[in-house]
């Protein structure tokens, strides 16, 4: 039952995540973080709560029953309840409250940071190449010294620690009180003494204390448990920032015309900021028109807003103000599913899924993901066939498998178990350039779907060799028929000469637009950027055009 319920919840959680668009999922105020284990635990806790309530009632009934047959029984029953009630109200427990834990001590944070840098494999290379070992050790020591006696004990324990021993002494006293009273009773009235009732009394008192304690903890977690389940069911109704319209894309034109035309895009006074209440504008007052089937190159320095502009063109984000028109209609009027189906985006973020190579490429066109001929063709176009052929399991190689393995002991001594552990779920890494080729192949798979009207390529070749980069761009350019193609690149020399339109960005603004010849004649930002590239190959910088 546990597995079934967990799968049910997992399915729900997955659907909620998949439904969210990019801005909604990046908006911290919308963080949907329900997990199936929590939901299952919540159900378990509720069942336990019923059990504890039942247990409390039956134990209380037993105490009353015992008290009835004993001289001074009512007094004894009352004393039995003192200890559990004291525990119920006196113990400071963090888990019984709504809480947030964080460390604010700057020396503590610094010591933790250096410890992390020294022990985390992720930083190993950077630490080594920078020769930072000594610095890390020294700074860690300084932070530790400055920290002095500040305890970094488990937060739960820190919270329940008491300054005086009085509460502990009182708790012990109340626990023993019924027995002490009973013992005095027995001395004064030996005729009432019974070993059986003494044992029962002690047993009942002990159980009651424990039951009350459980009751307290169950009550405390119940609100949290119920909120997990509520969050799980409310997740599906988190509204997306990018709402879908009804207009289908491509518009209902003759089939022949659709095949030949790419997407036309117009931006009117567009301003954009990333999600978050106080985020600043990263694009301001952008107005431009990208004709259907044109080849556009976006250039500009780091941080000038090229990728942000791409995110607007590809409908991953919406502007803060201004309008975007696709084929003369507002972008918001179209079905988001249709627009996504017609768009291929190859970016610098190369995500390799924890799936085999063939599926990693096939996912560019999910409808044909298992068509091996297409996948192989796409890999060839993306320049990935060469390295795939060298992998031990070729198309079936899973580069970054999901890790589930753990062993009882680590490090283990050489032997059978250690060998097995080293073999299972071994990550076989490939180079950065090879990863980019793999992701590029996925884009070719997507282009081959035949639905693409807008192809956007955002600096996907940072790790590729110049030959690989040139060939990739040429192949992508070769696929541009019937598509509007947008390239973002710092090494634009060989592309901008083919471009119908160059958009030159600077500090979030579109500072120049036109063809290569027009922009060179302006002696402006584009001229400077082009000149910097040209200088890498010529002795002297290009002369400015006479203005
Ligand atoms: N997800 C994000 N959230 C908040 N700000 C962001 C985000 N991504 C980028 N920015 C900011 O937006 C601005 C423009 O960034 P963008 O990535 O569009 O520039 P770019 O021209 O593509 O840069 P590069 O050439 O380095 O890729 C930068 O100041 C950047 O810090």
TrEMBL record:
Gene3D superfamilies named in the record: P-loop containing nucleotide triphosphate hydrolases
GO terms under cellular component: membrane
GO function term, MF aspect, one: ATP hydrolysis activity
InterPro entries xrefs: AAA+_ATPase (IPR003593), ABC_transporter-like_ATP-bd (IPR003439), P-loop_NTPase (IPR027417), Type_1_exporter (IPR039421)
Identification of the protein by name: P-loop containing nucleoside triphosphate hydrolase protein
Domain of life: Eukaryota
Keywords: ATP-binding, Hydrolase, Nucleotide-binding
PANTHER family documented for this protein: ATP-BINDING CASSETTE SUB-FAMILY B, MITOCHONDRIAL POTASSIUM CHANNEL ATP-BINDING SUBUNIT
Domain ABC transporter: 265-532
